[in-house]
Amino acid sequence: LRFDEKVRVVVFKSEVKGVFCAGADLKERAEMDDAEVGHFVKRLRNLMDEIAALPVPTIAAIDGYALGGGLELALACDLRVAASSAKMGLIETTRGLLPGAGGTQRLPRCVGIGLAKELIFTGRQIDGQQALSMGLVNHTVPQNSEGDAAYQRALTLAKEILPQAPFAVKMGKLAINRGMEVDIASGMAIEGMCYAQNIPTRDRQEGMAAFREKRPPQFIGK
Question: Which string of DSSP letters, residue by residue, matches 101-136?
């Protein structure tokens, strides 16, 4: 996906009704020794980092349970849409664990330190509406009879992104992600570098021409 220029938005959904991702198989985990557990979690953390580093926007469609590593998967995405009936939580402390695939870092960056600590310390599960109120998800929708309401809303959101200039969107994502990790002066410099890369693109020229000619732009990602 990283190198396929035809890919403009990636939506993560589950094929299992009622479950987005239920997290690690604890029965399998119980059969591992300490070294195997450490290796397993490191690989999982690396996977989440690869998802977070995808250059195009990513959307998690949470139509059911997103627990433990399942919520960490959703947190690795740029945007999250949940059904109101969905259940989310970093529940690791209820099993003698702590989040190990990015949850302790991505959750506070999403909802703030205080809320993240409360959710992780208690292992609490919350529904889609509660997740919306604390900024964990971008949108919450009532579940439908097919059980894919969040996915349908995620598709609608993806279709809002699709008409926009692909390279500009990628540079916007890069500037935000890199800028969030540094002080604001360094972030401004990152924005400037990303903007400089966008200036010579054909899409920027097309955007300006379309504005002058009062027509919709036809972006090609170049």
Answer: SSHHHHHHHHH-HHHHHHHHHHT--EEHHHHHHTTS
